Amino acid sequence: MTALDGLKVLDLSRVLAGPWASQMLADLGADVVKVERPGNGDDTRNWGPPWLQDTEGRDTGDAAYFFCANRNKRSVAIDMATPDGQRVLQRLAAEADVVLENFKVGGLRRYGLDHQTLCARHPRLIYCSITGFGQTGPYAGRAGYDFLIQGMGGLMSVTGRSDAEEGAGPQKVGVALTDVMTGLHAAIGILAALHHRERTGQGQHIDLALLDVQVAALANQAGNYLISGMVPGRMGNAHPNIVPYQDVPTADGDMILAIGNDGQFARFCAVAGRPEWATDVRFATNAARVVHRAVLIPLLRQTTVMRTTAEWIRALESQAVPCGPINRLDEVFADPQVRARGLRVELPHALAESVPGVANPIRLSATPVVYHTAPPQLGQHTEAVLAEWGVGETEWAASA
After folding, report:
1. What's the pTM value of the predicted model, to 2 decimals?
2. Given this model, what pLDDT does residue 393 score?
3. Which residues in the chain show pLDDT less than 70?
4. How many whole angstroms from its chain centre is CA 58?
5. 252 catalytic residue (yes or no)
6. What is the mean pLDDT of the chain?
7. DSSP at 316
8. What pLDDT does residue 201 have?
9. What pLDDT was estimated at residue 355?
10. Using one digit for the tens of pLDDT, what is the confidence trace for 246-259?
11. Which of 31, 62, 97, 179 is the catalytic position?
12. Which 8-state DSSP code applies to residue 324?
């Protein structure tokens, strides 16, 4: 038994935000049917290299990017641009509990697959629309992409080197973080709507925008601005409200210091051989350290460079001072904690021996995540899904 056993999701989305949401639902047990264009499929199938290789070492034609967001799903290849394809998809929508899409506002209306049409016909349907800017407002008709939204939504204004440093300038995050966060918000919204339907019998439309998610995720930076009126800027790896909370140099590289309170700072000072810092009026409290950041950090960096990263981590961890290395991805997946938590998973694939992926971080004690299928081949499940979801053989044959 899984948490979402019996839930049917018709996934019309592609690229990352929508597929990330539907993969979350699939991991929790929903039957997610991914609708793809015949011949091409999801755009991310072509976003390589690298490519998945078959058992003979040949490229399969599916990019690694596709595999990060599409496990536990079934793929059907249906051309929604054709009248037959539209009829089949409308039939599938009638069987679904959830429809998920990330087309431009109004883009599915001509196919009879928009939320107004489907929700009017099927009042219990949960219909989730993901767009760049939402269903309303002056930007509603624009296309939205993660990189664009990271800039417009303020994230790049607080990410990167300080303007006083060489190499300063706006910097995006190293993954499509706005897409990922939007996918998670979509999954949360869908689960909330399903709970509402359990109580009332009524479905609803979920309007989710990348820009809304990005602005909401500014968290303390947004709070700092809204309360103080002061516009925050880029600070590299430093924190606007906590000191020291950043990277520092060591004898053989760099490490992270994440000191969150005055007790941790005092213990750091003792380990560092600088106990006087903990009683210095300029450094004794976090508020004072924030004010005197420019004095403290150079002193601290002169001290941390005297030992290796491993030496610092051993000494500081023994005193419960938060710290850690700055790992490359090979070091991440070799880390003993990552290995112990099983964060790398392997799923069998029809063309390759297996496909590696990253485990879902949700650990449910009674209804755990089940990894039952690798991301599908294009159209791999078309006949099986249409038969199971009640579409007659002549209907789907006509749409193929």
Report:
1. 0.93
2. 62
3. 392-400
4. 30
5. no
6. 95
7. H
8. 97
9. 94
10. 999 999 999 999 99
11. 179
12. E
DSSP characters over 161-209: S-TTSTT-S----SS-HHHHHHHHHHHHHHHHHHHHHHHHS--EEEEEE
The C-alpha atoms of residue 385 and residue 400 are separated, in whole angstroms, by 13
Q: Residue 348 to residues 22, 29, 93: CA-CA distances in angstroms?
A: 20, 18, 30
Is residue 361 a contact partner of residue 60, using CB atoms and an 8 Å limit? no
Architecture of the domain whose range is 245-327: 2-Layer Sandwich (3.30)
The strand pairing partners of 77, in sequence order, are 36
Spans of all domains in the chain: 8-217+341-399, 245-327
Residues 6+ positions from 397 with CB-CB distance below 8 Å: none
Q: Return the amino acid letter for 362.
A: I
The class of domain 8-217+341-399 in CATH terms is: alpha beta
- Residue 396: the pLDDT is 55
**pLDDT on residue 4:** 98
Model pLDDT for residues 34-51, shown as the tens digit of each residue: 999 999 999 999 999 999
CB hemisphere CA count around 170 (13 angstroms): 12
**Structural element, H or E, at residue 398:** helix 393-399
At position 252, the amino acid (one-letter code) is: D
Residue 31 bridge partners (DSSP): 8
> Chain centroid to CA 128: how far?
17
Q: Would you call the peptide bond into 322 cis, given omega within 30 degrees of 0 as the criterion?
A: no
d(C-alpha 14, C-alpha 22), whole Å: 10
Q: From CA 238, how far away is CA 306, in angstroms rounded?
A: 21
